[in-house]
Amino acid sequence: MTLFWVLTLILVVIACVFVAIPLLKPKVNNDAALRDELNKAFYKDRLAELAVEADEGLVEDQHELVADLKQSLLDDIPNVPRKGEERSLSTMMVLVPSVVLVVALSYGLYATFGNYQKVKHWQDISQNLPELSKKLMNPQGVELTDKEMEDLTLALRTRLHYEPQDSTGWLLLGRIGLANRDMETAIGSMKKAYALEPQDGDIKLGYAQALMLSNDQMDQQSARSLLNKMLKGDYVDLRVYSLLAFDAFERQDFATAIEHWQSMQEMVGPNDARYEMLSRSIASAKAKMEPATLDDHAVSVTISLGNEVVLPQQGVVIVSVHSADGAPMPIAAARYPLGSFPFTVILDDSNSMMQGRKLSDLQSLIVRVRIDSDGNVATREGDWFGESDIAELGSGIKVEINQQF
């Protein structure tokens, strides 16, 4: 702020100088000199006329008339005032109020229309950025108010404008985007932070979380790939398992969700307050799996990958149930986003494809699973697939994807 006031003072001084120059160096007024020159010219002309009139005998007393003419010239000489004192006094009487008016108008108008309070607020929150950042980064989850979030966003954007290589700043801005459900800001900021520090654990986790919450399936798949890579590290953050478990549960891959939650329980131990919460999550996932295990009119399919399978960057998993004779037309089918393997899905009568024929009408069946990479079920070139043996309705079926068209 000091620099700001110094600059404004310089501008005001310049304005005052422009006001003072015309007053201190006024334009010379030549009215008196012009009048004197005019009187002299008139005097000379009149003398010439008197001489002509005297030669013609029209004037009797020429010397008296010349004396009167001289006296008239003297009487018409203007009185010259004392310029120094009077000019100095009049100049100061105009200059001082003018300078005061310029200063008053400049700062008065700025105070009224210049959003001084907003500028001051901006400067204050920029200085308060470290404290707000610590609150946001606090692992205990201290919540910031809406006003603090707005202030932190403004301060961060200001800082990142001048320091675009600040990975921590981009991470914080991404977390604010996540908190506000502004996925465009969250993903864009986390992506910049990840590009600057691709090995930082917090940044990788934040980027994966932002991608996981995206509506784009490619973003979600990128998040799963990133999280699965983090599972292979020497140290695995508890939040990696949490995100993978949440994603698996949303995709109805309850077996995988349970596996990740059990890993979290091993990490926190039974004395941790989170252990009981994880137990409830596991129980919830098992409850959703039980109907498929106990219901004789549904099929539970566990899907795994062969070692030679290379997953595409994008695609879907298509699971279809066929009659035991291997008929190409499926009795029931469903598609799922491409995620981590293995995972388990459940198909029942709600997935039936043929009118008048339900999945529950089958006594025995086979299950086919295909990874469709282009979104067109009619094209199969390069797609990976697998097929189960003949199984009974209501049993658990395992399918390994290990063949390619």
Task: Explain this structure.
The protein is an alpha+beta fold. It folds into three domains: 2-25 and 33-75 and 90-114, no CATH class; 117-215, Serine Threonine Protein Phosphatase 5, Tetratricopeptide repeat (Alpha Horseshoe); 299-404, Immunoglobulin-like, CATH 2.60.40. It is 58% helix and 12% strand. It has 14 helices and nine strands. Strands 2, 3, 5, 6, 7 and 9 form a six-stranded antiparallel sheet that branches. A three-stranded mixed sheet has the order 4-1-8. Strand 2 and strand 3 (332-337) form a beta hairpin. Helix 11 packs antiparallel against helix 12 and helix 13 (254-268) packs antiparallel against helix 14 (273-294). The radius of gyration is 47 Å and the shape is rod-shaped.
At CATH level 2, the architecture of the largest domain is Sandwich
Strand content: 5-15%
Spans of at least 5 consecutive residues whose pLDDT stays below 50 are: none
Give the termini separation.
69 Å
What is the total tally of β strands? 9
CATH topology annotation of the largest domain = Immunoglobulin-like
- From N to C, what is the helix and strand string? HHHHHHHHHHHHHHEEEEEEEEE
User: From the alpha-carbon coordinates, what is the Rg to the nearest angstrom?
Assistant: 47 Å
Protein name: C-type cytochrome biogenesis protein CcmI
Keywords: Cytochrome c-type biogenesis, Membrane, Repeat, TPR repeat, Transmembrane, Transmembrane helix
GO cellular component, one term: plasma membrane
Organism: Vibrio ziniensis
